[in-house]
Amino acid sequence: MELFQVFIELAQSTVRVSTPLILAALAGLFTERAGVFDIGLEGKMLGAAFAAGAVAYITQSVMMGLLAAILISVLLSLVHGYASITQRGNQIVSGVAINFVVAGATVILGQAWFKQGGRTPALSADGRFGTIKLPFADSLRDVPILGQVYSDLLSGHSPLTYLAFLMVPASWWILYRTRFGLRLRAVGENPGAVDTAGISVIWLRYRAVICCGILCGVAGAYLSLAANAGFTKGMTAGKGYIALAALIFAKWRPKNILFACLLFGFLDAFAIRYQGYAFPLIGKVPVQLMQALPYILTVILLAGFIGKAIPPKAGGVPYVKER
Amino acid sequence: MSVPYAKLPAWAEYGLIPLVNLVVAFLISGLVVLIVGESPLEAAYHMINGAFGRGEYIGFTLYYTTTFIFTGLSVAVAFHCGLFNIGTEGQAYIGGIGVALACLAFDRTLPWYLVFPIAIVGASFFGALWALIPGWLQAKRGSHIVITTIMFNFIAASLMNYLLNKVFKPLGSMSLETRTFDAGGQLPKLDWLMSIFGLSVGSAPFNISFLLALLVSFGVWVLIWRTKLGYEMRTMGHSPAAARYAGIKEAKIIIITMMLSGALAGMMALNPIMGEQFRMQLDFVQGAGFVGIAVALMGRSHPAGIIPAALLFGMLYQGGAEISFEMPSISRDMIVIIQGLVILFAGALEHMFRPAITRIVLGLSPKTSDVAATKGA
Amino acid sequence: MSELAIELKGIDKSFGLVHANRNINLKVRKGTIHGIIGENGAGKSTLMSILYGFYQADHGDILIDGSKVDIRDPNAAIAAGIGMVHQHFMLVENFTVLENIMLGAEESQILNAGITKARAELKRLEKEYALEVDPDAVIEELPVGIQQRVEILKALYRKADILILDEPTGVLTPAEADHLFRILQQLKEQGKTVILITHKLREIMAITDEVSVMRRGEMVATRTTKETSVEELAELMVGRRVLLRVEKGEAKPADVKLSVRNLTVRDSRGVTMVDDVSFDIRAGEIVGIAGVAGNGQSELLEAISGIRRAASGTVLLSGSAIDVTGDADPAALRKRGLAHVPEDRHHVGLVLKFDESENAILGYHDDPKYRKGFLLDVDAIRADAEEKIAAYDIRPPNPRLKTANFSGGNQQKIVLAREMERGPEVLIIGQPTRGVDVGAIEFIHKRIIEMRDQGKAVLLVSVELDEIRALSDRILVMFAGRIVGERTPEASEGELGLLMAGVEGPKEAAE
User: Fold this and answer.
1) Where does it reside (chain B) (predicted)?
2) Residue from the list C330, C353, C405 with its beta carbon closest to the beta carbon of B246
3) Which end of chain B is less congested by CB atoms within 10 angstroms, N or C?
């Protein structure tokens, strides 16, 4: 069935494209739920992707690359944290600044170290993440419908993809079933309540920011070590902002994040596949409209036309003990 | 009462602290240069020489300065009302539509000095339009202006891509741009201005929109500090409660401010489109909207500060081109790093050195610290 | 083991030049309900903040159960068995009751393990102290009285032996307040010690065993409640201060200029702050509203001046209505002759970052005389400002100086000059001499009398009883959002103090 084939292919692309979005959106979830607004997801992902590509090439080890990605991303998070939490600076400005510094630094350092015009050298198999075949994938392929769903859609993805999908329930569990999560959510709504309970608002927020760094690190590593074979200039291409849009669209809830990212990922996959295709009735949908759709949808949500998006109450406001 | 926030004399507040922030940004940039294995001093030399060494270089520097004055003013105007307009990038881009329409319609029939005013109106109109929606959403529906303007930047990019592809591109052309304008759509260079100083403008696209930028700077000053609207904007920016008390209509002011901000952003488009490229190309804004944020922060949102800050960034851009020419391992992306660091230190970390500076400055002058103690509580 | 739950010795705390607590000595016996009473600014909140570890005292010792304790943060206070129920609840609105109670005392990293235990403990506490609450209810959906119970449960859950309640009945209805008192009695019977901070004498007399009175940062007296009276406490609270003598002639009230009928104002949480208030103000008279801060006076002023929307009622200005329940426009009201000196000059009445001349036109910046064509006529504005500076002796006499650099008294004069000099028909003033030095106070009082003598209708709100008695021709006392009595300035301090504390009056505050 041709239609079914198309569905499988689209679904596969969607999963691939959504992976970094899910990770980055979850990263944003942790930090924003704690009250630290972060538009620097883009910069962290980019920096992580670069670090991963560079270190994986030098060490010929994919795991070292992943580690480097996480380290750099956490470092950038700490800078943002320092500016936002300790220095109580403007969190938007801090995020914008970090995005810039990373955009420039990745190219400069890339060119200086590898002399390939800003990219890192192509990675061999050792330096990349392979794909995972689920058990019986080959033998089940011939089973009608379900077989293909299993063998082609569920199986055969990068380990980071499986990790990303697993992180959704994991994040939910951390936020809603652990002490850390309870306190994190509290500090984003009413830091005073947390302070009077004798918990350090500052340390809690720093931990949230570090969680963000870790997840962005994995997102960046996915780009250069799994989706591609190395870092290329500007490879995040706005994914950090789409992840932010998805986070808002998902109203800051883990379950919704999965669907929002899949939706936005689907739009992207759809746009690529159907570029220039003439639909019945509608005709040709401009690819630019497809590209803009995630952002348009988010604005519509923000305007309150599809329900209310209520951000964490203490979001973006540095905590000053009010006495 | 904490010492770090004691009152500093004006020269320290508006001169020393920004200067220290700037120096730190440059020092860290210098570190990056070192890491890359080059000499920061050599880079600094090339930067200054590249920006001011010849008449032509100065021309380029001032050409970039023009762009940054417009975007800096755009962000600054919004800041005065307490709004963070990150959407200058997208508003400038959409403003280009107005410029392109004016030029495409009249470049063959009217001289430049008639097309120019039409283009100014067009640029402002479209820029304001793009800022209107986020402004309205903030005023009437409480949607956070920062997020909506970020989204609108991306929507603008897609929209312009589409328009350039489907509407503006001449048939048979492969590049995403309009046709080249005839004489009516080309702004004259300011070679006569440079020759007054004994300099030649050479191939630099330093054009008359620079004078417009200066004029508009003055206009912004008049608006903010000499009109009722400006008074109301500033009141809202300092204290929404006082604005309410004074009977100022919050929604109205927010929308008008955003439209003005968008109009200023739109005007930026005149410089590259009518002054250098003589056509509208894809992504002619090239990040100038974000530089505008840095310029507004450094210039403390006042035209008298914005113009030198814009000049600084113009210098960075032009000097940066020269560095990348002379020292191939440092490309123009170095400028992006410096820009980011300036935004970081002049914006988010602006109070970082305040305690140390306060101790030093007040330590020098016991009288100041007494005054600070009684007034601070 | 001591019979004292808490003993404070020589507690002293200053914030810059403000001496909030002066050498406070306090003894609180175990198993008693101990009241601390005083007006706003007396230092009660600072003292309690020290006890809860928000601040450290500059000098002095805290003894819990006879032994000296160093309380450097809320954790130490909790460990010492102190629990605090704050005036503004420290609750996470979109969490459940259980989540709020567990926050900070979760027992384990994995919540589930602690939840069953928490539920059981919560049930036990609820039964023991008659504090029924649904553990799975979301805070923002609960009425304020129930939210307060959660605050109390939080403290009990952490094994507090000493409970401090800071102005707990401010947000409660009379019925809820009575229920709270029953709960406090229950706690006392269970051996807990309760410190009740309030300015309401009725509460003190109703449930406390002992009461300490604070005034201007000092602990003035401690009494056994049974052995004292409201009159004595009122006098101790308000104090025998020197009455400010202001020269004033007879009032000659003429037509009614401001008429308020059945005005009700609710705050953002739905709590009624102004409750069915009615009064008139005539031209040529000063009506003073006395009362402790927080009894609705602020909301009353805000509703009349158009800053805050009222829930119901009517206000007539010189005979025509102000749209108080809709979109009243402060600018339009100014044009109709209503001038407003707001209580908060720092954030509402002035823009501190503006220079003096810019603040001199705040609210009146639309006036054509300040304009020259499209632009603001800076010279005219400055000249106007200079006139006012001269007339009101504002120092330094520099209209270009940033307003933040003026002293409190001079800042207030800037506001007064602006509001008074335009010949309004009605002038409403809130806290005219708060934070103002003595020299300026006399000047300001003179000006207010002048306005009256010029035939203006003046509504004066002040927490300074002296000021009210010195300036007013008629005094209305506000308590819990209602006008509980009208007196002439000849009424004694004690009598007014009682009304302010909700004790006597034609309309009883609670039955």
Assistant:
1) Cell membrane
2) C330
3) C
